Amino acid sequence: MDKQTLSFQAEVKQILHLVTHSLYSNKEIFLRELISNASDACDKLRFEALADNLLYEDQPNLEVRVAFDKDAKTITITDNGIGLSAEEAVANLGTIAKSGTREFVAALEGDQKKDAQLIGQFGVGFYSGFIVADRMTVESRRAGLKPEEGVRWSSEGTGDFEVETITRPQRGTSVTLHLRDGEDEYLSAWKLKSVIGKYSDHISLPILMQKEEWDPEKKEQVAKDEWAPVNKAAALWTRSKSDITKEQYEEFYKQISYDSEAPLAYTHNRVEGRSEYTQLLYIPAKAPFDLWNRDKRGGVKLYVKRVFIMDDAEALMPVYLRFVKGVIDSSDLPLNVSRELLQESRDVKAIREGSTKRVLTMLEGLADNEDEAERAKYAAFWKDFGVVIKEGVGEDHQNKERLANLLRFASTHADEGVSFKDYAARMKEGQEAIYYITADSLAAAKNSPQLEIFRKKGIEVLLLSDRVDEWMLSHLYEFDGKSLQSVAKGAVDLGKLQDEAEKKQAEEAAETFKPVLERLKASLKDRAKDVRVTTRLVDSPACLVVEEGDVSGHLARLLKQAGQSAPASLPTLEVNAEHALVRRLEKSEQFDDLAQILFDQAMLAEGGQLEDPAAYVKRVNALLISKLD
To answer: How far apart are CA 175 and CA 76, in angstroms?
Structure first.
Protein backbone atom coordinates (compact mmCIF):
# COMPACT_ATOMS: atom_id res chain seq x y z
CA MET A 1 0.00 0.00 0.00
CA ASP A 2 1.38 3.42 -0.98
CA LYS A 3 1.12 6.19 1.57
CA GLN A 4 -2.50 7.32 1.91
CA THR A 5 -4.04 10.22 3.80
CA LEU A 6 -7.44 9.37 5.27
CA SER A 7 -9.91 11.33 7.37
CA PHE A 8 -10.93 10.39 10.88
CA GLN A 9 -14.53 9.41 11.56
CA ALA A 10 -16.53 12.43 12.81
CA GLU A 11 -16.80 11.01 16.34
CA VAL A 12 -13.02 10.51 16.49
CA LYS A 13 -12.42 14.13 15.48
CA GLN A 14 -14.73 15.25 18.28
CA ILE A 15 -12.96 13.04 20.82
CA LEU A 16 -9.49 14.13 19.67
CA HIS A 17 -10.46 17.75 20.04
CA LEU A 18 -11.68 17.15 23.58
CA VAL A 19 -8.63 15.05 24.47
CA THR A 20 -6.17 17.66 23.30
CA HIS A 21 -8.03 20.64 24.73
CA SER A 22 -9.80 19.39 27.84
CA LEU A 23 -7.98 16.44 29.41
CA TYR A 24 -5.15 17.81 31.46
CA SER A 25 -5.85 16.55 34.97
CA ASN A 26 -3.80 13.44 35.66
CA LYS A 27 -2.04 13.30 32.27
CA GLU A 28 -0.04 10.22 33.21
CA ILE A 29 -3.12 8.10 32.51
CA PHE A 30 -1.92 7.86 28.87
CA LEU A 31 0.79 5.35 29.84
CA ARG A 32 -1.69 3.15 31.69
CA GLU A 33 -3.98 3.05 28.64
CA LEU A 34 -1.26 2.26 26.11
CA ILE A 35 0.29 -0.46 28.30
CA SER A 36 -3.18 -1.89 28.85
CA ASN A 37 -3.73 -2.00 25.08
CA ALA A 38 -0.36 -3.73 24.65
CA SER A 39 -1.26 -6.31 27.30
CA ASP A 40 -4.62 -6.93 25.58
CA ALA A 41 -2.81 -7.50 22.27
CA CYS A 42 -0.66 -10.16 23.92
CA ASP A 43 -3.74 -11.78 25.50
CA LYS A 44 -5.37 -11.91 22.05
CA LEU A 45 -2.33 -13.58 20.54
CA ARG A 46 -2.25 -16.15 23.33
CA PHE A 47 -5.92 -16.92 22.72
CA GLU A 48 -5.67 -17.17 18.91
CA ALA A 49 -2.53 -19.29 19.25
CA LEU A 50 -4.58 -21.99 20.99
CA ALA A 51 -5.87 -22.87 17.53
CA ASP A 52 -2.66 -22.01 15.63
CA ASN A 53 0.58 -22.29 17.57
CA LEU A 54 2.58 -20.97 14.58
CA LEU A 55 1.35 -17.46 15.37
CA TYR A 56 4.05 -17.27 18.06
CA GLU A 57 6.62 -17.38 15.23
CA ASP A 58 10.07 -17.27 16.91
CA GLN A 59 8.91 -15.27 19.95
CA PRO A 60 7.07 -17.53 22.41
CA ASN A 61 7.63 -15.18 25.37
CA LEU A 62 5.15 -12.30 25.42
CA GLU A 63 6.24 -8.93 26.80
CA VAL A 64 5.79 -5.17 26.72
CA ARG A 65 8.73 -2.77 26.36
CA VAL A 66 8.78 0.92 27.28
CA ALA A 67 11.61 3.11 25.98
CA PHE A 68 12.28 6.85 25.72
CA ASP A 69 14.65 9.05 23.71
CA LYS A 70 15.52 12.41 25.28
CA ASP A 71 17.04 13.83 22.11
CA ALA A 72 14.10 12.90 19.89
CA LYS A 73 11.60 13.65 22.73
CA THR A 74 9.77 10.36 22.17
CA ILE A 75 8.33 7.54 24.25
CA THR A 76 7.76 4.15 22.58
CA ILE A 77 5.57 1.33 23.92
CA THR A 78 6.20 -1.96 22.10
CA ASP A 79 4.47 -5.32 22.43
CA ASN A 80 4.91 -8.65 20.63
CA GLY A 81 1.21 -9.42 20.68
CA ILE A 82 -1.28 -10.06 17.88
CA GLY A 83 -0.44 -6.91 15.92
CA LEU A 84 -2.46 -5.11 13.22
CA SER A 85 -2.88 -5.61 9.50
CA ALA A 86 -3.13 -2.50 7.30
CA GLU A 87 -6.92 -2.86 7.13
CA GLU A 88 -7.17 -3.25 10.92
CA ALA A 89 -4.99 -0.15 11.47
CA VAL A 90 -7.36 1.95 9.36
CA ALA A 91 -10.48 0.44 10.96
CA ASN A 92 -9.31 0.40 14.59
CA LEU A 93 -7.36 3.66 14.76
CA GLY A 94 -9.55 5.80 12.51
CA THR A 95 -13.06 4.91 13.63
CA ILE A 96 -14.88 4.05 16.84
CA ALA A 97 -17.47 1.29 16.87
CA LYS A 98 -18.30 1.63 20.55
CA SER A 99 -21.86 2.68 21.27
CA GLY A 100 -20.63 4.67 24.27
CA THR A 101 -18.99 7.41 22.15
CA ARG A 102 -21.82 9.90 22.63
CA GLU A 103 -21.90 9.29 26.37
CA PHE A 104 -18.14 9.81 26.52
CA VAL A 105 -18.37 13.12 24.69
CA ALA A 106 -21.33 14.22 26.84
CA ALA A 107 -19.38 13.36 30.00
CA LEU A 108 -16.35 15.33 28.86
CA GLU A 109 -18.45 18.32 27.89
CA GLY A 110 -20.19 18.22 31.28
CA ASP A 111 -18.87 18.79 34.78
CA GLN A 112 -16.17 16.13 34.41
CA LYS A 113 -14.57 17.51 31.24
CA LYS A 114 -11.14 17.74 32.85
CA ASP A 115 -11.14 14.17 34.13
CA ALA A 116 -8.68 12.05 32.15
CA GLN A 117 -9.92 8.91 33.94
CA LEU A 118 -12.93 8.90 31.62
CA ILE A 119 -10.80 8.15 28.58
CA GLY A 120 -10.66 4.40 29.19
CA GLN A 121 -14.26 3.99 30.27
CA PHE A 122 -15.57 4.22 26.71
CA GLY A 123 -12.98 2.20 24.81
CA VAL A 124 -11.02 5.13 23.37
CA GLY A 125 -7.84 4.69 25.40
CA PHE A 126 -5.48 4.80 22.40
CA TYR A 127 -6.28 8.46 21.82
CA SER A 128 -5.12 9.34 25.34
CA GLY A 129 -1.61 9.54 23.85
CA PHE A 130 -2.54 12.90 22.39
CA ILE A 131 -2.85 14.31 25.91
CA VAL A 132 0.97 14.59 25.97
CA ALA A 133 1.92 14.09 22.29
CA ASP A 134 1.43 16.31 19.25
CA ARG A 135 2.08 13.36 16.94
CA MET A 136 1.70 9.58 17.29
CA THR A 137 3.24 6.91 15.08
CA VAL A 138 2.15 3.28 15.12
CA GLU A 139 4.16 0.54 13.40
CA SER A 140 2.69 -2.95 13.44
CA ARG A 141 2.52 -6.37 11.80
CA ARG A 142 -0.17 -8.92 12.48
CA ALA A 143 1.01 -12.35 13.63
CA GLY A 144 1.03 -14.75 10.69
CA LEU A 145 1.54 -12.11 7.98
CA LYS A 146 4.77 -11.69 6.02
CA PRO A 147 7.38 -9.10 7.16
CA GLU A 148 6.64 -6.93 4.10
CA GLU A 149 2.97 -6.74 5.15
CA GLY A 150 3.64 -4.43 8.05
CA VAL A 151 1.89 -1.08 8.40
CA ARG A 152 2.79 2.42 9.59
CA TRP A 153 0.03 4.73 10.87
CA SER A 154 0.70 8.30 11.93
CA SER A 155 -1.31 11.37 12.85
CA GLU A 156 -1.02 14.74 14.53
CA GLY A 157 -4.42 14.20 16.13
CA THR A 158 -6.24 16.72 13.96
CA GLY A 159 -8.52 15.85 11.05
CA ASP A 160 -6.67 13.06 9.28
CA PHE A 161 -4.05 10.32 9.48
CA GLU A 162 -1.52 8.71 7.14
CA VAL A 163 -1.12 4.98 6.56
CA GLU A 164 1.40 3.03 4.44
CA THR A 165 2.83 -0.46 4.06
CA ILE A 166 6.26 -1.13 5.59
CA THR A 167 8.57 -4.07 6.15
CA ARG A 168 8.56 -5.10 9.82
CA PRO A 169 10.40 -8.32 10.73
CA GLN A 170 8.93 -8.64 14.23
CA ARG A 171 5.23 -9.14 14.87
CA GLY A 172 3.33 -6.89 17.25
CA THR A 173 3.00 -3.14 17.63
CA SER A 174 5.14 -0.13 18.51
CA VAL A 175 3.39 3.10 19.50
CA THR A 176 5.68 6.15 19.48
CA LEU A 177 4.61 9.39 21.14
CA HIS A 178 6.29 12.59 19.93
CA LEU A 179 5.93 14.70 23.05
CA ARG A 180 4.65 18.24 23.09
CA ASP A 181 6.78 21.03 24.48
CA GLY A 182 6.53 21.08 28.25
CA GLU A 183 6.08 17.32 28.67
CA ASP A 184 9.76 16.51 29.23
CA GLU A 185 9.08 15.11 32.72
CA TYR A 186 8.11 11.84 31.02
CA LEU A 187 11.59 11.54 29.43
CA SER A 188 12.85 10.02 32.68
CA ALA A 189 13.22 6.37 33.64
CA TRP A 190 12.28 7.23 37.23
CA LYS A 191 9.05 8.96 36.16
CA LEU A 192 8.00 6.19 33.77
CA LYS A 193 8.75 3.48 36.34
CA SER A 194 6.73 5.26 39.00
CA VAL A 195 3.72 5.58 36.67
CA ILE A 196 4.02 1.91 35.67
CA GLY A 197 4.27 0.89 39.33
CA LYS A 198 1.21 2.96 40.17
CA TYR A 199 -1.12 1.83 37.38
CA SER A 200 0.23 -1.29 35.71
CA ASP A 201 2.04 -3.32 38.36
CA HIS A 202 -0.66 -6.00 38.17
CA ILE A 203 -0.17 -6.66 34.43
CA SER A 204 0.62 -10.37 34.16
CA LEU A 205 3.21 -9.82 31.40
CA PRO A 206 6.69 -8.48 32.08
CA ILE A 207 6.93 -4.74 31.36
CA LEU A 208 10.56 -4.16 30.43
CA MET A 209 12.71 -1.02 30.45
CA GLN A 210 16.37 -0.55 29.67
CA LYS A 211 18.77 -0.57 32.59
CA GLU A 212 20.75 2.61 33.10
CA GLU A 213 24.29 3.43 34.14
CA TRP A 214 26.07 6.64 34.99
CA ASP A 215 27.95 8.32 32.13
CA PRO A 216 30.73 10.46 33.65
CA GLU A 217 31.24 12.40 30.39
CA LYS A 218 27.56 13.30 29.94
CA LYS A 219 27.11 13.46 33.73
CA GLU A 220 23.77 11.71 33.53
CA GLN A 221 22.18 8.25 33.46
CA VAL A 222 22.27 6.59 30.02
CA ALA A 223 20.46 3.49 28.79
CA LYS A 224 22.31 0.17 28.51
CA ASP A 225 21.46 -2.47 25.92
CA GLU A 226 19.97 -4.59 28.65
CA TRP A 227 16.29 -4.87 29.53
CA ALA A 228 14.76 -5.69 32.91
CA PRO A 229 11.19 -5.97 34.23
CA VAL A 230 9.85 -3.00 36.19
CA ASN A 231 6.59 -4.63 37.34
CA LYS A 232 5.95 -7.76 39.41
CA ALA A 233 4.68 -9.50 36.24
CA ALA A 234 2.23 -11.57 38.24
CA ALA A 235 -1.51 -11.23 37.88
CA LEU A 236 -2.80 -9.49 41.00
CA TRP A 237 -5.41 -12.17 41.73
CA THR A 238 -2.76 -14.92 41.75
CA ARG A 239 -0.81 -13.28 44.55
CA SER A 240 -1.39 -13.82 48.25
CA LYS A 241 -3.84 -11.39 49.85
CA SER A 242 -1.23 -10.53 52.48
CA ASP A 243 1.09 -9.27 49.72
CA ILE A 244 -1.48 -6.87 48.21
CA THR A 245 -2.22 -3.44 49.62
CA LYS A 246 -5.63 -1.75 49.65
CA GLU A 247 -4.25 0.79 47.19
CA GLN A 248 -3.18 -1.98 44.77
CA TYR A 249 -6.62 -3.61 44.95
CA GLU A 250 -8.26 -0.26 44.23
CA GLU A 251 -5.92 0.59 41.37
CA PHE A 252 -6.55 -2.80 39.76
CA TYR A 253 -10.29 -2.13 40.00
CA LYS A 254 -9.88 1.22 38.26
CA GLN A 255 -7.83 -0.48 35.56
CA ILE A 256 -10.39 -3.15 34.70
CA SER A 257 -13.52 -1.03 35.21
CA TYR A 258 -12.31 2.34 33.86
CA ASP A 259 -13.86 3.88 36.95
CA SER A 260 -12.26 6.93 38.49
CA GLU A 261 -13.54 6.15 42.00
CA ALA A 262 -12.44 3.44 44.42
CA PRO A 263 -14.81 0.46 44.72
CA LEU A 264 -17.40 0.25 47.48
CA ALA A 265 -16.23 -3.23 48.49
CA TYR A 266 -14.21 -6.17 47.14
CA THR A 267 -13.54 -9.83 47.88
CA HIS A 268 -10.55 -11.98 46.91
CA ASN A 269 -10.71 -15.74 47.39
CA ARG A 270 -9.30 -19.00 46.15
CA VAL A 271 -12.04 -21.64 45.98
CA GLU A 272 -11.17 -25.33 46.10
CA GLY A 273 -13.37 -28.39 45.93
CA ARG A 274 -15.51 -29.71 43.09
CA SER A 275 -14.45 -26.70 41.02
CA GLU A 276 -11.20 -24.79 41.57
CA TYR A 277 -11.02 -21.11 40.75
CA THR A 278 -9.83 -17.74 42.02
CA GLN A 279 -12.23 -14.81 42.25
CA LEU A 280 -11.49 -11.13 42.68
CA LEU A 281 -14.83 -9.29 42.63
CA TYR A 282 -15.65 -5.63 43.13
CA ILE A 283 -18.84 -3.66 43.84
CA PRO A 284 -18.66 -0.15 42.31
CA ALA A 285 -19.42 2.91 44.38
CA LYS A 286 -21.57 4.47 41.63
CA ALA A 287 -23.83 3.00 38.96
CA PRO A 288 -22.37 2.86 35.42
CA PHE A 289 -24.17 4.84 32.71
CA ASP A 290 -25.47 1.67 31.02
CA LEU A 291 -26.76 -0.09 34.17
CA TRP A 292 -30.35 -0.13 32.91
CA ASN A 293 -29.47 -1.75 29.60
CA ARG A 294 -30.17 -5.41 30.36
CA ASP A 295 -29.21 -6.36 26.79
CA LYS A 296 -25.68 -5.03 27.14
CA ARG A 297 -23.20 -7.76 27.84
CA GLY A 298 -21.98 -7.43 31.37
CA GLY A 299 -19.98 -9.81 33.46
CA VAL A 300 -16.52 -10.39 34.78
CA LYS A 301 -13.27 -11.14 32.98
CA LEU A 302 -12.67 -14.87 32.53
CA TYR A 303 -9.21 -16.41 32.64
CA VAL A 304 -8.37 -20.09 32.41
CA LYS A 305 -5.05 -21.00 34.06
CA ARG A 306 -4.06 -17.29 33.76
CA VAL A 307 -4.85 -17.25 30.01
CA PHE A 308 -7.28 -14.48 29.14
CA ILE A 309 -10.44 -15.88 27.53
CA MET A 310 -13.09 -13.15 27.42
CA ASP A 311 -13.99 -9.74 28.83
CA ASP A 312 -17.69 -10.13 29.54
CA ALA A 313 -18.35 -13.68 30.69
CA GLU A 314 -21.98 -13.01 31.62
CA ALA A 315 -22.58 -16.72 32.32
CA LEU A 316 -20.46 -16.35 35.47
CA MET A 317 -22.75 -13.79 37.10
CA PRO A 318 -26.56 -13.41 37.10
CA VAL A 319 -28.01 -10.50 35.11
CA TYR A 320 -29.14 -8.65 38.23
CA LEU A 321 -25.49 -8.49 39.38
CA ARG A 322 -24.36 -7.06 36.03
CA PHE A 323 -22.69 -4.12 37.83
CA VAL A 324 -20.10 -6.41 39.50
CA LYS A 325 -16.58 -6.06 38.09
CA GLY A 326 -13.63 -8.39 38.53
CA VAL A 327 -11.76 -11.47 37.44
CA ILE A 328 -12.42 -15.19 37.70
CA ASP A 329 -9.55 -17.52 36.89
CA SER A 330 -10.58 -21.17 36.54
CA SER A 331 -8.30 -24.18 36.83
CA ASP A 332 -10.88 -26.58 35.36
CA LEU A 333 -12.38 -25.03 32.22
CA PRO A 334 -10.87 -25.88 28.82
CA LEU A 335 -8.78 -23.17 27.17
CA ASN A 336 -10.97 -23.24 24.06
CA VAL A 337 -14.15 -22.56 26.03
CA SER A 338 -16.81 -20.65 24.05
CA ARG A 339 -19.85 -18.66 25.18
CA GLU A 340 -22.04 -21.60 24.20
CA LEU A 341 -19.99 -24.03 26.29
CA LEU A 342 -20.12 -21.62 29.22
CA GLN A 343 -23.91 -21.84 29.24
CA GLU A 344 -23.83 -25.65 29.51
CA SER A 345 -20.84 -26.32 31.78
CA ARG A 346 -21.39 -27.74 35.27
CA ASP A 347 -18.16 -26.08 36.40
CA VAL A 348 -19.48 -22.71 35.22
CA LYS A 349 -22.70 -23.26 37.17
CA ALA A 350 -20.66 -23.93 40.32
CA ILE A 351 -18.56 -20.79 39.73
CA ARG A 352 -21.68 -18.72 39.13
CA GLU A 353 -23.35 -19.95 42.33
CA GLY A 354 -20.19 -19.44 44.39
CA SER A 355 -19.54 -15.96 43.00
CA THR A 356 -23.15 -14.88 43.51
CA LYS A 357 -22.98 -15.96 47.16
CA ARG A 358 -19.72 -14.00 47.61
CA VAL A 359 -21.28 -10.81 46.25
CA LEU A 360 -24.37 -11.22 48.45
CA THR A 361 -22.09 -11.81 51.46
CA MET A 362 -20.27 -8.55 50.69
CA LEU A 363 -23.58 -6.68 50.51
CA GLU A 364 -24.83 -8.29 53.72
CA GLY A 365 -21.60 -7.25 55.42
CA LEU A 366 -22.35 -3.62 54.58
CA ALA A 367 -26.11 -3.75 55.21
CA ASP A 368 -25.93 -5.48 58.61
CA ASN A 369 -22.75 -3.86 59.87
CA GLU A 370 -22.92 -2.26 63.32
CA ASP A 371 -20.56 0.46 62.13
CA GLU A 372 -22.57 3.49 61.02
CA ALA A 373 -20.14 4.38 58.21
CA GLU A 374 -20.48 0.90 56.65
CA ARG A 375 -24.28 1.10 56.83
CA ALA A 376 -24.08 4.51 55.17
CA LYS A 377 -22.13 2.86 52.35
CA TYR A 378 -24.98 0.39 51.89
CA ALA A 379 -27.55 3.21 51.89
CA ALA A 380 -25.57 4.89 49.09
CA PHE A 381 -25.33 1.57 47.24
CA TRP A 382 -29.09 1.03 47.54
CA LYS A 383 -29.87 4.42 45.98
CA ASP A 384 -27.88 3.52 42.86
CA PHE A 385 -28.38 -0.24 42.61
CA GLY A 386 -31.51 -1.06 44.63
CA VAL A 387 -33.74 -1.52 41.60
CA VAL A 388 -31.49 -4.16 40.01
CA ILE A 389 -31.27 -6.04 43.32
CA LYS A 390 -35.08 -6.19 43.22
CA GLU A 391 -34.81 -7.87 39.80
CA GLY A 392 -32.94 -10.69 41.52
CA VAL A 393 -35.91 -11.61 43.74
CA GLY A 394 -37.71 -12.99 40.69
CA GLU A 395 -34.64 -14.25 38.84
CA ASP A 396 -32.68 -16.01 41.59
CA HIS A 397 -35.05 -18.29 43.50
CA GLN A 398 -32.13 -19.96 45.30
CA ASN A 399 -31.11 -16.69 46.98
CA LYS A 400 -34.56 -15.09 47.29
CA GLU A 401 -34.51 -15.00 51.10
CA ARG A 402 -31.04 -13.42 51.21
CA LEU A 403 -32.12 -10.83 48.66
CA ALA A 404 -35.30 -10.09 50.65
CA ASN A 405 -33.07 -9.20 53.63
CA LEU A 406 -31.19 -6.72 51.45
CA LEU A 407 -34.31 -4.87 50.25
CA ARG A 408 -34.91 -1.34 51.51
CA PHE A 409 -38.06 0.78 51.28
CA ALA A 410 -39.69 4.03 52.25
CA SER A 411 -42.62 3.73 54.64
CA THR A 412 -45.21 5.76 56.48
CA HIS A 413 -42.76 5.76 59.42
CA ALA A 414 -39.52 6.61 57.53
CA ASP A 415 -38.58 8.25 54.23
CA GLU A 416 -36.08 5.56 53.23
CA GLY A 417 -33.93 2.64 54.36
CA VAL A 418 -36.62 0.44 55.96
CA SER A 419 -35.85 -3.29 55.79
CA PHE A 420 -38.36 -6.09 56.31
CA LYS A 421 -36.49 -6.84 59.53
CA ASP A 422 -36.94 -3.23 60.72
CA TYR A 423 -40.64 -3.36 59.85
CA ALA A 424 -41.19 -6.68 61.63
CA ALA A 425 -39.56 -5.32 64.79
CA ARG A 426 -42.03 -2.42 64.81
CA MET A 427 -45.19 -4.45 64.10
CA LYS A 428 -48.17 -3.85 66.40
CA GLU A 429 -49.11 -6.52 68.88
CA GLY A 430 -51.57 -8.79 67.11
CA GLN A 431 -50.46 -7.64 63.61
CA GLU A 432 -50.07 -10.67 61.36
CA ALA A 433 -49.15 -9.17 57.96
CA ILE A 434 -46.60 -6.79 56.46
CA TYR A 435 -48.62 -4.08 54.71
CA TYR A 436 -47.49 -2.29 51.55
CA ILE A 437 -48.85 -0.09 48.77
CA THR A 438 -47.56 0.32 45.20
CA ALA A 439 -47.95 3.57 43.27
CA ASP A 440 -46.55 5.53 40.34
CA SER A 441 -44.51 7.78 42.65
CA LEU A 442 -43.51 8.04 46.27
CA ALA A 443 -45.77 11.08 46.71
CA ALA A 444 -48.75 9.19 45.25
CA ALA A 445 -48.09 6.26 47.60
CA LYS A 446 -47.64 8.49 50.65
CA ASN A 447 -50.89 10.41 50.01
CA SER A 448 -53.06 7.47 48.97
CA PRO A 449 -56.48 7.42 50.71
CA GLN A 450 -56.04 3.66 51.24
CA LEU A 451 -53.57 4.50 54.03
CA GLU A 452 -56.03 6.44 56.18
CA ILE A 453 -57.14 3.67 58.55
CA PHE A 454 -53.50 2.52 58.90
CA ARG A 455 -52.37 6.03 59.83
CA LYS A 456 -55.21 6.36 62.31
CA LYS A 457 -54.11 3.15 64.05
CA GLY A 458 -50.36 3.86 63.72
CA ILE A 459 -49.76 0.78 61.55
CA GLU A 460 -46.68 1.10 59.33
CA VAL A 461 -47.12 0.62 55.57
CA LEU A 462 -44.25 0.17 53.10
CA LEU A 463 -44.38 2.62 50.16
CA LEU A 464 -43.26 1.07 46.85
CA SER A 465 -42.91 3.19 43.72
CA ASP A 466 -40.25 1.54 41.51
CA ARG A 467 -41.48 0.10 38.22
CA VAL A 468 -40.03 -3.28 39.13
CA ASP A 469 -41.90 -3.53 42.45
CA GLU A 470 -45.12 -5.11 41.14
CA TRP A 471 -43.13 -7.76 39.29
CA MET A 472 -40.92 -8.40 42.34
CA LEU A 473 -43.97 -8.85 44.59
CA SER A 474 -45.39 -11.48 42.24
CA HIS A 475 -42.43 -13.63 43.38
CA LEU A 476 -42.30 -12.57 47.04
CA TYR A 477 -45.28 -13.53 49.18
CA GLU A 478 -43.92 -13.51 52.73
CA PHE A 479 -40.98 -12.64 54.93
CA ASP A 480 -40.01 -14.65 57.98
CA GLY A 481 -43.45 -16.28 58.11
CA LYS A 482 -45.35 -12.99 57.78
CA SER A 483 -47.44 -12.55 54.63
CA LEU A 484 -47.05 -9.48 52.45
CA GLN A 485 -50.42 -7.79 51.98
CA SER A 486 -51.37 -4.90 49.71
CA VAL A 487 -53.56 -2.28 51.38
CA ALA A 488 -55.21 -1.69 48.00
CA LYS A 489 -56.34 -5.26 47.39
CA GLY A 490 -59.38 -7.04 48.80
CA ALA A 491 -61.29 -6.03 51.90
CA VAL A 492 -59.18 -4.71 54.74
CA ASP A 493 -58.99 -7.30 57.47
CA LEU A 494 -57.02 -5.89 60.38
CA GLY A 495 -57.85 -8.94 62.47
CA LYS A 496 -56.93 -8.40 66.11
CA LEU A 497 -56.07 -4.76 65.38
CA GLN A 498 -59.74 -3.95 64.81
CA ASP A 499 -61.83 -3.97 67.99
CA GLU A 500 -65.36 -5.41 68.25
CA ALA A 501 -67.01 -1.98 68.38
CA GLU A 502 -65.44 -1.02 65.04
CA LYS A 503 -66.50 -4.27 63.43
CA LYS A 504 -70.07 -3.82 64.68
CA GLN A 505 -70.19 -0.22 63.49
CA ALA A 506 -68.98 -1.25 60.01
CA GLU A 507 -71.61 -3.98 59.74
CA GLU A 508 -74.39 -1.62 60.80
CA ALA A 509 -73.24 1.06 58.35
CA ALA A 510 -73.23 -1.46 55.51
CA GLU A 511 -76.80 -2.53 56.36
CA THR A 512 -78.14 1.02 56.78
CA PHE A 513 -76.42 2.17 53.58
CA LYS A 514 -77.60 -0.79 51.49
CA PRO A 515 -80.16 1.15 49.35
CA VAL A 516 -77.52 3.73 48.38
CA LEU A 517 -75.02 0.97 47.53
CA GLU A 518 -77.55 -0.64 45.20
CA ARG A 519 -78.14 2.67 43.40
CA LEU A 520 -74.38 3.23 43.12
CA LYS A 521 -73.90 -0.25 41.65
CA ALA A 522 -76.57 0.53 39.05
CA SER A 523 -75.01 3.89 38.14
CA LEU A 524 -71.48 2.44 37.90
CA LYS A 525 -72.34 -0.99 36.47
CA ASP A 526 -69.99 -0.47 33.49
CA ARG A 527 -67.09 0.85 35.59
CA ALA A 528 -67.13 -0.94 38.96
CA LYS A 529 -67.25 -4.64 39.75
CA ASP A 530 -68.84 -3.90 43.11
CA VAL A 531 -69.61 -1.02 45.49
CA ARG A 532 -69.29 -1.51 49.25
CA VAL A 533 -68.88 0.36 52.49
CA THR A 534 -65.20 0.81 53.31
CA THR A 535 -63.31 0.04 56.49
CA ARG A 536 -60.09 1.67 55.28
CA LEU A 537 -61.10 5.33 54.78
CA VAL A 538 -61.22 8.02 57.45
CA ASP A 539 -61.13 11.40 55.67
CA SER A 540 -61.73 10.58 51.98
CA PRO A 541 -65.17 9.87 50.49
CA ALA A 542 -64.16 6.91 48.28
CA CYS A 543 -61.31 4.79 46.96
CA LEU A 544 -60.74 2.09 44.36
CA VAL A 545 -59.48 -1.37 45.27
CA VAL A 546 -59.03 -4.61 43.35
CA GLU A 547 -59.75 -8.11 44.51
CA GLU A 548 -56.95 -10.50 45.51
CA GLY A 549 -55.51 -12.05 42.37
CA ASP A 550 -56.59 -9.18 40.09
CA VAL A 551 -54.15 -6.81 38.39
CA SER A 552 -53.72 -3.60 40.39
CA GLY A 553 -54.36 -0.24 38.76
CA HIS A 554 -50.65 0.58 39.11
CA LEU A 555 -49.58 -2.59 37.27
CA ALA A 556 -52.24 -2.08 34.60
CA ARG A 557 -50.81 1.38 33.89
CA LEU A 558 -47.26 0.02 33.71
CA LEU A 559 -48.34 -2.66 31.23
CA LYS A 560 -50.13 -0.07 29.11
CA GLN A 561 -47.03 2.15 29.05
CA ALA A 562 -45.02 -0.85 27.88
CA GLY A 563 -47.49 -1.44 25.02
CA GLN A 564 -49.03 -4.53 26.62
CA SER A 565 -52.65 -5.15 27.51
CA ALA A 566 -53.59 -5.93 31.11
CA PRO A 567 -56.09 -8.72 31.89
CA ALA A 568 -59.59 -7.18 31.83
CA SER A 569 -61.00 -6.63 35.32
CA LEU A 570 -63.07 -3.87 36.92
CA PRO A 571 -62.12 -2.31 40.27
CA THR A 572 -64.34 -2.20 43.35
CA LEU A 573 -65.45 1.20 44.64
CA GLU A 574 -65.37 1.55 48.41
CA VAL A 575 -67.28 4.48 49.91
CA ASN A 576 -66.96 6.08 53.32
CA ALA A 577 -70.48 6.09 54.76
CA GLU A 578 -69.43 8.66 57.39
CA HIS A 579 -68.26 11.23 54.83
CA ALA A 580 -70.56 14.27 54.37
CA LEU A 581 -70.49 14.01 50.57
CA VAL A 582 -71.49 10.35 50.62
CA ARG A 583 -74.24 10.91 53.20
CA ARG A 584 -75.87 13.51 50.95
CA LEU A 585 -75.95 11.15 47.98
CA GLU A 586 -79.28 9.55 48.86
CA LYS A 587 -81.27 12.83 48.72
CA SER A 588 -79.38 14.36 45.80
CA GLU A 589 -81.20 15.07 42.54
CA GLN A 590 -77.83 14.62 40.76
CA PHE A 591 -77.18 11.12 42.13
CA ASP A 592 -75.83 9.63 38.88
CA ASP A 593 -73.49 12.55 38.25
CA LEU A 594 -72.23 12.45 41.84
CA ALA A 595 -71.65 8.70 41.55
CA GLN A 596 -69.49 9.24 38.46
CA ILE A 597 -67.61 12.08 40.17
CA LEU A 598 -66.89 9.89 43.21
CA PHE A 599 -65.51 7.16 40.95
CA ASP A 600 -63.39 9.59 38.90
CA GLN A 601 -61.96 11.23 42.03
CA ALA A 602 -61.06 7.83 43.44
CA MET A 603 -59.35 7.01 40.13
CA LEU A 604 -57.36 10.28 40.21
CA ALA A 605 -56.39 9.79 43.87
CA GLU A 606 -54.65 6.52 43.05
CA GLY A 607 -52.75 8.05 40.12
CA GLY A 608 -54.94 6.73 37.34
CA GLN A 609 -56.03 8.52 34.18
CA LEU A 610 -59.65 9.24 33.30
CA GLU A 611 -60.94 7.82 30.04
CA ASP A 612 -63.11 10.92 29.55
CA PRO A 613 -61.60 13.90 31.42
CA ALA A 614 -63.93 16.36 29.65
CA ALA A 615 -67.01 14.57 31.02
CA TYR A 616 -65.56 14.76 34.54
CA VAL A 617 -64.92 18.49 34.24
CA LYS A 618 -68.41 19.04 32.84
CA ARG A 619 -70.02 17.22 35.80
CA VAL A 620 -67.94 19.08 38.39
CA ASN A 621 -68.71 22.44 36.76
CA ALA A 622 -72.42 21.67 36.73
CA LEU A 623 -72.26 20.76 40.42
CA LEU A 624 -70.42 23.99 41.25
CA ILE A 625 -72.92 26.11 39.31
CA SER A 626 -75.87 24.48 41.09
CA LYS A 627 -74.29 25.21 44.48
CA LEU A 628 -73.47 28.80 43.53
CA ASP A 629 -77.05 29.37 42.32
So the answer is: 5
